[in-house]
Amino acid sequence: MKTDTPRPIYLRDYRPPNFLIKSVNLDFKLDAAATKVRSRLKVRHNPKSQVHNAPLILDGENLKLDAVILDGNTLTRSQYRLTKTSLTIPETPIKPFTLEIHTTIDPSQNKSLQGLYRSRGVFCTQCEAQGFRRITYFLDRPDVLSTYTVRLEADPKEAPVLLSNGNRLERGTSDRGERHYAVWHDPHPKPCYLFALVAGDLSSIAADFKTASGSDVGLTIYVEHGKEERVAWAMDSLKRSMRWDEKRFGREYDLEVFNIVAVSDFNMGAMENKGLNIFNDRLVLASPETATDTTFEAIESVVAHEYFHNWTGNRITCRDWFQLCLKEGLTVYRDQEFSADERSRVVQRISDVRQLKAHQFPEDSGPLAHPVRPESYIEINNFYTATVYEKGAEIVRMIATILGAEAFRSGMDLYFERHDGEAATIEQFLECFAEVSGRDLSQFALWYSQSGTPHVECRTSYDKRARTYSLTLKQTTPQTPGQQQKNPMHIPVRIGLLGPDGHDLPLTTDAGDALLDDIIHLRQPSQTITFTDVPARPVPSVLREFSAPVHLEVELSEKDLAFLLANDSDAFNRWQAANTYAMRTMVAMVEALSRGKRSSRGTGFAKALSAALVDDNLDWAFRAELMRLPSQSDVATEIGQNVDHTFIYRAHRQLTRLIARRLEDQLAAIHDTLKESGPFSPDAANAGKRAARNAALQLLASLGSKTAINRTADQYFNASNMTEAAHALNLLAASNSPQRRTALDHFYQRWHEDHVVIDTWFVAQAQSPRNNALDVVRALTRHERFDITAPNKVRALIGNFALMNPVQFNRPDGKGYEFLVEQILAIDRFNPQIAARLLNAMRSWRALEPKRRKLARNALTKITKHPDPSRDVHEIVLRILDE
Ligand code: BES
Ligand code: ZN
After folding, report:
1. Phi and psi (nearest 5°) for 875?
2. What's residue 4's pLDDT?
3. 268 C-alpha vs ligand 1 centroid, how far in Å?
């Protein structure tokens, strides 16, 4: 182990800090290999501390300590203790004191991308969750809030731009122009994980924003020289986010400036440092020629997300890292709502639910399952998960559903008012909603502590004579690691009943408060609701808008599904019906294939789909969602055991081709008539048309016919934007056509000098299901444009191969698993966070059929035998193998 045997940290062990740090003065002499950091802290004993005479224990990692000065006196070696991860000062004054610490760090050697590092020559920082301790010795915990003043000094040629949090106080030159400096001050007390600095040679684009109450804010986005033309969309997204947060949540911005910096080497998507957000450059840079609609959409939502953290995360932060969902789940909910308001609400909901089911559901049903608020961790970086983020967002959404929009807003207002400037907990958050609504949320709170996706089974019965219709809902939550016993949850189930004419029937019942408006409040293990005056057997539409993150099982015939797809007033459930129909068909196909047979199903679904596609009341983005079949991984998750990816691949292709053959003319017409005319616009309506066009092409391309390939190649070579080009490139890269090589070479020639765009070329090859995919990917790890220390490259090539190419990653010979483990061990030597994330691709290994299962286990065991894994990888492997 690189560190000593890692010990878990427990929520129940939380204690308030023994010391508080009122202010922090940081002085950086920036130098690539030896940056000098001087930190001056105003420290005092915490009156709320439960320990008397506690020593001052500061966190620190990979630091060279040069001096410790307490109230002006340099401490001798016997006056402090130093370990690999801490600096302890046993004796401190009773009165507030000043502690000065001098350290030296080496950003050029830092490939973990935590703390201070260099990205293509730019100095930048990443401190969440525990990176600040790699900059200086400190109380690196989110409940220690301080005001920061930061002085940066650097070579003006190397780093003309000097940025930190807050507002700039002054700037100037020193050493006769050899050096220059800037001083920044952030008046808002913050935890150290929100500290940031950037220093480098960057271009900037500026804009102005006037807040609702009339303050002027200077907005600036910093990017690499030459990329200025690609900043407009991020800036536009930022302004819209700021306005939206004022309107929807009454939240204004609170500094004179707001800066965003795009860097190339970044472990995550982006980071909400106070007043100085740092972004992965692929989530800032976009132009029609270089970025797809998916990227435009992602930029809009990530810019919004990080901006929204200013209130949910920064002004109100987390007491400890167990409360991570307090800021992340809530902020994801807020960015989802923003996108829903800016675009199509139902399409946004479909995409959020797809994401939840594709990532969070498998996590929650496997060895890595954990509560939205975990109770212990070994490495906190491993808990930035789909569960904390996405299930966390679903919980906030359920609160809004249960309370209604108005009471939800009052609860949020109370939360902002009561906890502004504090480090809060989930209990305090929930208490605000309980107070404004007068509701008892104690059962609801189980959503935070109980892991596993609840199963809800819905049975129905109709009594023709009595004209009554009953719904019986049963809930169970499966066992998960460390949780054998589960209690019944409070699950809001939104419903409707469709009469024979396809319209909603009125919901008359005497169910009392078990049914409020159209929501069944399921709180018992089993509950029956009887509706009266029901003239004919209705078709139930259950869990409208996906009102709770559960597995739902309803008895619905294929006829019912087609009926819902055609008629449901809840557009989400129209899509859900199509998705369920397609999934059922594919699962039947897999089953037949595994018995050496061929299922004859599929025409029913094709017919229902065809009918929906001509419904001009549906916007194109929605119709595109209907054309997108469940992915191979979705099917694997649905099957859940003895998974054979070869059969799934074949079944997927079988249904895709069947639809393409039956709907060939209709799909070709969609592809022809939606052809781009006029200038590119990234708005939702135009993006929807492109999405529908691409979805139609994808179905057609599965035929592999000359016509289909020519159509695809034509789209690639005549594309007027990256949305068309990248999609066609992916399809060609997956084909066995002669145009495959020409298109890939053409793309490489056009974009090889652009380190962001060229990732599209790696992705296309990583995802190709051709039999030589592994050899191609392995060869590409040695390509001159690949760089194993750059997380975007690793994700594009290795991540996409392991996660988005199930049939080739899960080769029957196990070579895919061996390759991944080899790469993980190589990456773990310098970037444990990225290595541990890649391991996610192996978490469902127990669901594989026996042969692959054994090979996957062998590959994983190799990691346990490794003498020196990081804490990050060590923890995930232990949990995946459950040993
Ligand atoms: N605070 C996180 C970034 C972060 C995550 C820092 C993990 C350190 C460790 C940021 O707000 C975030 O959540 N970013 C997401 C994107 C967001 C739109 C969900 C990310 O980076 O993936
Ligand atoms: Zn976040």
Report:
1. -65, -45
2. 62
3. 6
H/E element, 820: helix 815-828
pLDDT digits (tens, 9 = 90+) for 765-819: 999 999 999 999 999 999 999 999 999 999 999 999 999 999 999 999 999 999 9
Q: Is 697 in the pocket of ligand 1 (CB under 6 A)?
A: no
pLDDT at 676: 84
pTM of the model: 0.99
Q: How far is CA 832 from each of CA 62, 147, 818, 857, 868, rounded to the nearest angstrom?
A: 15, 31, 18, 21, 11
CA distances for 730 relative to 407, 701, 715, 766, angstroms: 47, 11, 12, 10
Q: Determine if ligand 1 sits within 6 Å of the CB of residue 306.
A: yes
Query: Which of 133, 267, 306 has most ligand 1 atoms within 8 Å of CB, for mutation?
Result: 306
Atom 20 of ligand 1, nearest CA residue? 269
Q: Is the CB of 837 under 6 A from ligand 1?
A: no
User: Ligand 1 within 6 A of 379 CB?
Assistant: no
Do residues 695 and 624 lie in contact, with contact meaning Cβ atoms separated by under 8 Å? yes
Ligand 1 center from residue 445 Cα (angstroms):
24
Question: How wide is the angle at C-alpha 506 spanned by C-alphas 505 and 510, nearest 5°?
Answer: 130
- Which tokens go with 744? 């890939």
3-class secondary structure per residue, 40-74: EEEEEECCCCCCCCCCEEEECCCCEEEEEEECCEE
Please work out whether the CB of residue 272 comes within 6 Å of at least one atom of ligand 1. yes
Ligand 2 centroid to residue 315 C-alpha, Å? 14
- For the chain, the helix, strand and coil percentages under 3-state DSSP, each to the nearest 5: 45, 20, 35
- Point out the residues that are catalytic: 306
Mean pLDDT over the full length of the chain:
98
Contact 728, 713 (CB under 8 A): yes
